[in-house]
Amino acid sequence: MAEELSVHIDKRLMRRAFERAAQSYDQAAVLQREVSQRMLERLDLVKLTPALILDAGCGTGVGSRMLARRYPDARVIGLDIAPAMLHMARQSDPWWKRSLPFLSGNVPQYVGGDLERLPLPAASVNLLWSNLALQWCDDLPAAFAEFQRVLAKGGLLMFSTFGPDTLRELKHAFAGLDGHTHVNRFLDMHDIGDQLAYAGFSAPVMDMEFITLTYSDLMGLLRELKAIGAHNVTSGRSRGLMGKHTWRAMLENYEKLRKDGRLPATYEVVYGHAWVNEKKPKLTDGRQVIEFQIQARQMGLR
């Protein structure tokens, strides 16, 4: 299958895409805000009073500001690989809030960095939050090893990412047309859970849901993906312009999926959380148990 070709992430290209999308990101990031809100609601079930929170892959800082409001006594650090995203995050707070935090409440700090090489000391973070950023890691085990390193004892990792059914309609529309990848690769929920356990996290819990956005035409979807920087940055992508025949065939294939006058775009959203040094159950033979809560829900935002 063409989509099973080389799928390594080109980080140079990925960073450039997010740099260019910084100005348009907030207006287009409907799904990202919705998932962030759903993650925040999950914290209602957790008893945690963090002193230091890391928002790993913070983008324009929406999640960082939400966490700062929820935990007003915590120090919140937003980290992103794209300097332009960090600039937008900092500009979201007026200068007097950044200069006079003792008068303005909890204001996040923003730093540049890679999720696979975090610029933080060991055992310093109490809550590590990452909303729809892990899919941009080329080496997920390395990222989880870094998360494990910086989290303090009793610390919580909470994240969301995309599963392999994400943008399945777009993959279907391109299937068999050429020998290139057209959608970034996304890992299966069970593989992510296995990697969490391998990294040393305790009692990882995974679940997922399907969220479907709809569009009047395909260009609406493609413009939105471009506006949030979600380009195809796999090494198996085409290096040249798409031919007119391939483009026309892809459009015709996607049009066959139109329903009730709208074109769907499905996202498989995977949620996970795990603890550091939290006691986890064992089988009678001493093997560790990985708990998976699998929920497949079909929901639409628009």
Architecture per CATH nomenclature, i.e. the level-2 architecture: 3-Layer(aba) Sandwich
CATH topology: Rossmann fold
Helical residue percent band: 25-40%
User: What's the name of the CATH homologous superfamily?
Assistant: Vaccinia Virus protein VP39
Total number of domains = 1
Beta fraction of the residues?
15-25%
CATH class category name:
Alpha Beta
Average pLDDT number: 86
- The CA-CA distance between the termini, in Å, is 32 Å
* Structural Rg: 20 Å
Can you tell me about this structure?
The protein has 12 helices and 9 strands. The chain has a single domain, classed as Rossmann fold (3-Layer(aba) Sandwich). Helix 3 packs parallel to helix 4 and helix 9 packs across helix 12. Strands 1, 2, 3, 4, 5, 6, 7, 8 and 9 form a 9-stranded mixed β-sheet that branches. By secondary structure, it is of the alpha/beta class. The longest helix has 13 residues.
Quick gist of this model?
The chain has helices spanning 11-21, 25-28, 30-42, 62-70, 83-91, 95-99, 101-104, 140-150, 168-174, 189-198, 218-227, 244-255; strands at residues 52-56, 75-80, 109-112, 125-131, 151-162, 202-215, 263-275, 291-292, 298-300. With 302 residues, the protein is α/β, with parallel strands linked by helices.
